[in-house]
Design brief:
Elements: E1 5-14, E2 17-25, E3 29-34, E4 40-44, E5 48-56, E6 59-66, E7 71-77, H1 82-93, E8 97-99, E9 111-115, E10 118-123, E11 126-132, E12 136-142, E13 145-150, E14 162-166, H2 177-188, E15 200-209, E16 212-218, E17 222-226, E18 231-235, E19 239-246, E20 252-265, E21 268-278, E22 282-286, H3 291-298, E23 305-309, H4 310-322, E24 326-327, E25 341-345, E26 348-354, E27 358-362, E28 367-370, E29 374-381, E30 388-395, E31 400-407, H5 411-420, H6 431-436, H7 438-442, H8 451-481, H9 484-487, H10 489-497, H11 505-514, H12 516-526, H13 551-566, H14 572-585, H15 588-643, H16 647-652, H17 654-662, H18 672-691, H19 697-704
Parallel strand pairs: 5-8, 19-24
Antiparallel strand pairs: 1-2, 1-7, 2-3, 3-4, 5-6, 6-7, 9-10, 10-11, 12-13, 13-14, 15-16, 15-21, 16-17, 17-18, 19-20, 20-21, 22-23, 25-26, 25-31, 26-27, 27-28, 29-30, 30-31
Helix pairs in contact: 10-15, 13-14, 13-15
Subcellular location: Nucleus, Nucleolus; Nucleus; Chromosome
Biased composition (Low complexity): 497-507, 647-663
Main location: nucleus
Amino acid sequence: MADTLEFNEIYQEVKGSMNDGRLRLSRQGVIFKNSKTGKVDNIQASELAEGVWRRVALGHGLKLLTKNGHVYKYDGFRESEFDKLSDFFRAHYCLELAEKDLCVKGWNWGTVRFGGQLLSFDIGEQPVFEIPLSNVSQCTTGKNEVTLEFHQNDDAEVSLMEVRFYVPPTQEDGVDPVEAFAQNVLSKADVIQATGDAICIFRELQCLTPRGRYDIRIYPTFLHLHGKTFDYKIPYTTVLRLFLLPHKDQRQMFFVISLDPPIKQGQTRYHFLILLFSKDEDISLTLNMNEEEVEKRFEGRLTKNMSGSLYEMVSRVMKALVNRKITVPGNFQGHSGAQCITCSYKASSGLLYPLERGFIYVHKPPVHIRFDEISFVNFARGTTTTRSFDFEIETKQGTQYTFSSIEREEYGKLFDFVNAKKLNIKNRGLKEGMKQSYDEYADSDEDQHDAYLERMKEEGKIREENANDSSDGSGEETDSSFNPGEEDDDVAEEFDSNASASSSSGDGDSDREDKKPAKKAKIVKDRKPRKKQPESKKGKDPNAPKRPMSAYMLWLNASREKIKSDHPGISITDLSKKAGELWKAMSKEKKEEWDRKAEDARRDYEKAMKEYSVGSKADSHRGERSKKKKKKQEKQVKGKGDKKGTTSKSSSSKSPAKGMSDSFKSKEFVSSDESSSAESKKEDSEDEGAASPPPSSEDSASGSD
């Protein structure tokens, strides 16, 4: 038989609420750990007096009674686990696990039995319901009636607040059954009554939560906070942990008391009581007890007369009364030498203390996170500036805490601390990037190789190279199109072959001066078709060499089938993640082999790209020359057709035309407007020549002069 039994998702009934946790049974005893608070209940095997197995609302339950009267209830078992538990109890605890069913008759008349801290209402031998007397906050009596009032359960939507019992009168003299009933209840009830004098009083202490100044009266079983507006009574049994934390300025101290259940003020719940002390404030304290009582109760932990710093006295008294250790910061030291980190949580600024077993943030709102409930932590880029970063913590229950605006210099210390505590870091491996450049560290949130990102980078490089190649080819065309001389080259040729015979050099000069504004408008008009160049831009050439793959992509293509065979049915996304993990875990020597293959592929690509670019440029130049030649031939054919109808006129005015053609006229003044005007003038002269007789020799001689 196994020496231990463990059960997950077991519920412990405490003050009417069901707390989820884990139950472990061993030879030494029974241990239950609360998943919410981390509180551990330990029952020694020698203390167990009885074990009861019964059917309850959540399946089956186990009730354990100890020799000192304490009762522990655990629910959530399956019916099939009875035999295993029964054998374990018989073998290791020497107890028989008895089966008892609850009475479900619905009767309201029965017998009340008091057993330890439990009140049981029975019908015959079967219990109907049980009431833990520690849940009772007040007990009042009336005529033949006893009323029990209960502590309010903050975790439950509906709470049982009151139960009334009718006690019939008896014939026995000298015994009042109602008073006897009430005394049995009060002897075990958790009734807070400020009877007697306080052990000591601390006056006007500064309290951060709840805010204000309070007098703290220390009683044997509870703590009384007395303020100007509110009073709180805190039983020592509700104190979970004590913390003593130094402020960053090294002049103040925080004393934090963790409470479960919390104290409440209206609808506000305070899970932490935070006191702020100055290190320079001293006090002399005298306990309201004689020395023998102090020695007997506290066993040397306290003395009747004590003196020292105020925070030391308060923490010392609380430690002795609550009987719990005080948690202090461990060996963590931040960039400035302090044991805490300045940060912001939600809308308030505060201090984050890395402890040996968790983190605690003070003070608004206070947060305590244990290491065993942390799923992972994450270092993220600051939302407003790169001079700070965020520290994110996600618990196993899915709750996320984000501590923001942490100074960049604190990253190294905090990362080393988290790494030493072996917490799961979501973006592990980014510490080196943080030291070199914060932007590189902040842009990545995951530690896995992203195959999709690699593919996007490769495609981006290809698009960029194609854009550069196209801009190299189209840049010459764009530059040439802005040159009026080259653009209007064909127009100049047409002007040379169809020069006007009737215009003189002076008229030509005046025409040039008058047509300068028209020439500029023409240039602006010619620029419009250039906007359509992107529409006619050629797509990617299918004959272009393909860009080489990276070392990772070469390895992935070679290993994809092997990964699929090792993990049948794996999805594409999971395959990429798995490949990233394998690539990251690969040794440096194996990666160098794939790097060499990638380098060889890159050299082959560059060589092929050079050959391709030379060939494509030659083809483009040949195409441009053929287009220009074809356009020139079309212009010449058009010019020859125009010259056929003007043979006679050309011969009569040959010498003036030749003189004008010999005169220099810059190409930049040539425009289609001028050529069209020249043609119109030529047509007018031809009409005049047809209507008048040919000139005589004398006229021609005078014209030549």
